[in-house]
Amino acid sequence: MVRCFFYADFNKDNIVTDQTNSIAFPVGGDYTTLDVMIHKVTSGGGGTVTPTVVFKQGRIDAKDSSLINWTVTLNNALVDIDNAYYTDIMGTGQTLTGLVKLKYRDADKNERYSRNENVTLDANRSFRLELGDLQDTSVVITYQTKMVGGQFSYKNTAKIGGANIEEQIRNATVNDYSGGGEGEGSGNNPPPTDPPITPKPPVTPDPPVTPNPDTDPIVVTPTTPEVSTMIDGDNEIQIYVVKKGDTLPSIAKKFETTTRQLKIWNKLTSDEIKVGQKLIVKVTPRKVTVKKQNDASPSPTTTKALPQTGDTMSGVARLIGTLLTLTSMAFLSRKK
């Protein structure tokens, strides 16, 4: 599964949050519609108790996704704080940019006055602001940081204290979804839209092999199915073991014979065959040299009258019976 994070603006009248929505995405000059679960989330964090003494949150800037806008609200609870002070501790991977702005508000949250502070971070990556006495007064502090660490999460800490209250702390974290994803590559040029196809080199066929009937009774090439050869009397018989995907017509085509002939040789009553079944796929008559008894000189070679394809052969029949027995035993053993 690949998870992607991206920024998008949606018309709230056309979507339903926390449910699947059909969204059209532009892909390759066209549109692809995907079902997308849309949740309403925020990139920042802060306190949830109202009213609060300290509350802080951060959000990615809408115009520049490398900036975080931090907002700190102090003393919404309108507690009287003597000699109030604020301390901000900035997490790693970000730098402070611009001024820190302070806005003082009355009990009705109307602005009384404001001021800007030019601050620098100390060795602890923090800065401190003196707020004075706060009576029926709240303070809103805003500033920006720039993300420079390439991190996913950026954390800041807010503290408020005073002469008459214990220091209170609030943490806030912003997650940067704009940098999600991983990739790798090399070079400075983008790949072409349609990568060129390298033609395959021509295949030089092997020289043809002429079989010698005296020394090479069977010549097997990569396109010829593997067979075993048996000699039965005056006939050379080739045996083939049925493999997954084989059919009787396909086997007949492999061995340049017919389905009917295969049925005759193997005494089959239908086209049904099973994986592992042994079939006679070819019967070839052999030439036999006959010598006269007690004759030292060789006599002329004579050729016996041999059965033709489809003829009845007692030796082949015996071999068929043996094959059927072996095949049946193999299937019975497999079933056990």
Quickly describe the structure.
This protein has 336 residues and is mainly beta. It has three helices and 14 strands.
Query: What is the number of E strands?
Result: 14
Tertiary shape:
rod-shaped
Question: Radius of gyration from the CA trace?
Answer: 45 Å
Query: What is the typical, i.e. mean, pLDDT?
Result: 76
CATH topology of the domain at 54-178: Immunoglobulin-like
Q: Spatial order of the strands in the main sheet?
A: 3-4-9-6-7
Instruction: Give the count of helical stretches.
Output: 3
Unreliable spans: 42-49, 180-193, 215-224, 294-313, 330-336
CATH architecture of the domain at 54-178: Sandwich
How far apart are the termini?
43 Å
> What percent of residues adopt helix (DSSP H or I)?
10-25%
Structural class: mainly beta
The main pleated sheet reads as:
5 strands, antiparallel
Identify the CATH class of the domain at 54-178: Mainly Beta
Sheet-strand content, in percent, reads 35-45%
Order of helices and strands: EEEEEEEEEEEEEHHEH
Can you walk me through this structure?
With 336 residues, the chain is mainly beta. 11% of the residues lie in helices and 36% in strands. The longest helix is centred in the C-terminal third of the chain and has 22 residues. The chain is rod-shaped, with a radius of gyration of 45 Å.
